[in-house]
Amino acid sequence: MKRVLSVASEAVPLIKTGGLADVVGALPAALAPMGWDMRVILPAYPGVIANLNKGSKAVWASGDLFGGPATLILGQCGEMQVMALDAPHLYARTGGPYSDGQGDYADNAERFAALSWVAAEIARHGTQEATPWHPDIVHAHDWQAALTPAYLSYAGAQAIPSVLTIHNIAFQGRFSPTKMAAMRLPAQRFTPDGFEFWGDISTLKAGLVSAHAITTVSPRYADELMRPEFGLGLEGVLQYRADVMSGILNGIDKQVWDPENDPEVKPFSAAKLAGKKGNRAALIAEFSLDANAITGPLMILVSRLTSQKGIDMVPGAISEFLANGGGLIVLGSGDRWAEAMVQDLSARYPGRVGNWIGYDEGLSHRMFAGGDAVLIPSRFEPCGLTQLYGMRYGCVPIVAAVGGLADTVIDATPAACAAHAATGIVFQPVDTLGLRQALRRLTALWNDPKEWAATVKRGMKTDWGWEPSAHRYVALYEATIRRGTDA
Ligand code: ADP
Ligand code: GLC
Predict the structure, then answer these.
(1) Is-same-fold flag (2-251+467-486; 274-461)?
(2) Which of 14, 85, 189, 450 has the fewest CB atoms inside 10 Å of its own CB, making it the most exposed?
(3) Ligand 1: residues within 6 Å at CB?
(4) Residue 308 CB neighbours (<10 A)
């Protein structure tokens, strides 16, 4: 069996703020049938170790990891093997993984440098088990783990192959250069071809210039990242590394997201679509919306509420859709201005628009089951998972033509409908007018029940499982290891 060390700050079911956690948590089980043994190294936030199966054990320890003692605890969580980095001075916090009510933790630089540092130690020297576990390759995710390939390179351990995946380039791990020593970064690499970025440290950049291979989570986002409007300052670095860069689409966990077997919902399937009606009625009742007034599609939105997600376009685009019988339910949390905007929409359209500000996994399942359409008007979207969950649960996705959204939804043009290929509505330009026109098209599709049902069923029957992408990761790991050995 080949071994891969996955380095990340989130993984379901232990800790999640977004899609990164879904992907990191799903990969080990997806890779196992292909003969790959993946261990995930994760900070031991409060509760993480308690959620590992009995029999967990220490496999590495240090008396001083960035200012305090640390132990790496190996345990099992479902099918995932986790190495939880127990370092109370860094991770025993009452808020979320990155911030609390006061904002980002002041020592995030050290917190995630420490995670990457330990990952690099394990990659170089193996664990301290009786039979040490040595990975054949390291797979780091996003800025929190991006220093792993960098530390390997600074230690002269370039021969240890590494892959860095960009889930979202908007988060670049930018810190003041005064943090350099605390992060154990070598001052001579504070250069434009090192980890220096506009006078700051960027952990993501450090990883992008050091990793043997770079991936992102859809082919289209891989192309978009080469341009300034999506690369957000890192496009030059990525152009320089274009020969080792590729896009591999995320999959979904088909067991967790299975409308025929979901404890949260009344079962239904493409063959038994009528079952969806009960879920719709229950959802409308749960939000006390006006069942008689909603004669058009009931649209849902499940999202972090940040400017990335394009929620600010909704108020200016929605009135005609609602006047034509549509309904809208929003589940999300995030920036205060966006939360207020959502609450204001509900107040303006009582009986038509409902919302729940917060994070609620169970409710998200009930929404996908009860909704007719799922709205994702993102300004950029590296992959996006809710359009995939939506399609699996019989919601027609209505998405901006960016990133993974454009790669996974086939727009209901006359040609695509005639070819029995359409799975949703894809719109551009990504602005209020574009969204308003897309909503008009959604209503028109709804008013053609045969075409609507065909579109829903095609989405439900498409296989969004991990298998094809897991094969791509394995091919990439193998090619990267081969190149490393040849070099
Ligand atoms: P991102 O990672 O940018 O937030 P994705 O679409 O990849 O976007 O993943 C978001 C994940 O988080 C999905 O699994 C989605 O269902 C979930 N999610 C987002 N907001 C909420 C919420 N308020 N309650 C429950 N689940 C949510
Ligand atoms: C990021 C992206 C999202 C992607 C997820 C998992 O959070 O915003 O598009 O699906 O990572 O890769």
Answers:
(1) yes
(2) 450
(3) 18-20, 22, 302-304, 331-333, 359-361, 364, 383-386
(4) 16
Q: Could you identify the residue written with the tokens 């790669």?
A: 407
For the chain, the residue count is 487
Report which protein residue has its CA nearest ligand 1's atom 14. 19
The answer to whether residues 286 and 352 touch, using CB atoms and an 8 Å cutoff, is no
Predicted local distance difference test score (pLDDT) of residue 486? 60
Query: In the structure encoding, which two tokens stand for residue 196, read together?
Result: 């220096």
- The H-assigned helical ranges of 189-241 are 203-210, 219-224, 228-231, 235-240
CB of 356 within 8 A of CB of 376?
no
Sequence spans of domains, the chain: 2-251+467-486, 274-461
Fold classified for 2-251+467-486: Rossmann fold (3.40.50)
Question: Is 28 within 8 Å of 80 (Cβ atoms)?
Answer: yes
Nearest ligand 2 atom to the CA of 165 is 12
For a substitution probing ligand 2, which of 164, 385, 402 has the most ligand atoms within 8 Å of its CB?
A: 385
Q: What angle do CA 309, 315, 321 make, to 5 degrees?
A: 105
Q: What is the pLDDT of residue 21?
A: 97
CATH architecture for residues 274-461: 3-Layer(aba) Sandwich (3.40)
CA of 443 to the centre of ligand 2 (A): 28
Confidence (pLDDT) at 55: 87
Residues 51, 43: Cα–Cα separation, whole Å: 13
Which pLDDT score, from 0 to 100, does residue 158 have?
Answer: 87
Q: Which residue of 264, 385, 392, 405 sits with most ligand 1 atoms within 8 Å of its CB, as the best mutation to test the pocket?
A: 385
At 8, list the tokens: 């990340």
- Name which of 232, 218, 231, 240 is nearest 403 in CA terms: 218
Distance CA 446, CA 327 (A): 13
Q: Tell me, what amino acid is at 198?
A: W
- CA dihedral sign of residues 175, 180, 186, 189: positive
CB-based contact 75:84 (threshold 8 Å): yes
H or E segment to which residue 357 belongs: strand 353-357
Which residues have a Cβ under 8 Å from the Cβ of 475 and sit 6 or more positions away?
Answer: none
Residues of the chain below pLDDT 50: none
Residue 398 near residue 375, CB atoms below 8 Å: yes
